[in-house]
Amino acid sequence: MIGKEFIGRESESVVLKIRLEEVRRFAEAIGIPFDGEVPVTYVGTLLQGNIPGFELTTPGMIHGEQKISYERSLSVGDSLTYKRCIKDVYERTSKLGKIRFVVLETSGYDLAGELVFSSSSTLITPVKGATN
Amino acid sequence: MKSLCNYQITERLPIREWVPNNVQIRQYAEASGDFNPIHLDDNYARQVGLGGMIAHGMLTMAQMAAMLSEWIRKEGRIIKLDVRFVQVVRQGDKITFGGSIRARSENIIVCDIEATNDKEEIVLGGVAHIMQK
Predict the structure, then answer these.
(1) Chain B residues 61-100 within an 8 A CB cutoff of chain A
(2) Is residue B100 predicted with pLDDT exceeding 90?
(3) What ipTM was assigned to the predicted interfaces of this complex?
(4) Residue B73 belongs to some domain of the structure
């Protein structure tokens, strides 16, 4: 079970090239005409980069919030490096019992090291054995 | 078609409708690499208390981005998109995406955005920042 001790853990850097076929396939899957532009939420597919001890598909985990910001637009053919990091872990008590929030941030940089995008996912998971 | 620069504060954005189906949800899993079984395995999704399979939040968010992109066309680009997933979305739900202009400066438009299901429940809410070209 992920806890506060995970805060600050980060993945290795992942090197990536934005490939035409992958972006086209993504656009088709979301049901939009592909016009050569990279859809805003494409960065949500950047799931490589293992964070030691962290498993994304914990049973019952759902997606609570997502924030995506661009410093500049992303284009097919761009080369990037990105890294994932656990920014926060906290708990709240709801009507359904205790739930845990995990904030996972992904930052993408161009080859000059300039930030291109940042993406923050808040994941929500029930706390096993917790009572209300 | 009305130009982006003619939209005023409080004005509504054009809406987009979307009805997800399991074929699209599977296609999205394959294109995104998110194979979490809550999206693909009905029994598993029931066992973990979700009452059945749900669509990826990121697929719903992508539909919101599509609504915004259709609206702004080539006149601008989305520089920030922040959303909360308020309710689950399932196959067959009729989802309506909309929004309104909250604020604008010389080249940035801030929009409140929202998606509702056919029971008029909010499934997604948030804010988008558009930079005009």
Answers:
(1) 61-63, 65-66, 68-69, 77-85, 88
(2) yes
(3) 0.95
(4) yes
For each of the domains in chain A, give its residue range(s) and CATH number, in order of start: 4-126 (3.10.129.10)
Residue of B nearest to A126 (CA): B48
Total structural domains within chain B? 1
Segment B28-51 mean pLDDT: 93
- Is the separation of the CB atoms in A118 and A108 below 8 Å? yes
Contact A65 B83 (CB under 8 A): yes
Query: Is the separation of the CB atoms in B79 and B98 below 8 Å?
Result: no
Say what the pTM is: 0.95
Nearest to B49 among A26, A41, A60 (CB): A60
**Considering the domain boundaries, does residue B40 fall inside one?**
no
Q: State the residue range of the domain holding B77.
A: 7-19+54-132
Q: What is the mean pLDDT of each run of 10 residues along chain A (132 residues)?
A: 89 95 97 94 90 78 95 96 96 87 96 96 81 42
CA separation (Å) from A17 to A75, B3, B43, B112? 10, 34, 37, 33
Provide the CATH number for the domain around residue B73. 3.10.129.10
Q: Specify if B32 maps to a domain.
A: no
- Work out the angle between the directed axes of helices B57-72 and A20-30 (0-180°, nearest 10): 100
Contact A64 B84 (CB under 8 A): yes
Give residue A129's pLDDT: 59
Cβ burial of A111 (10 Å; 0-12, 13-18, 19+) is: exposed
**Residue B45 within a domain:** no
Q: Nearest CB to B79: which of A44, A59, A69? A: A69
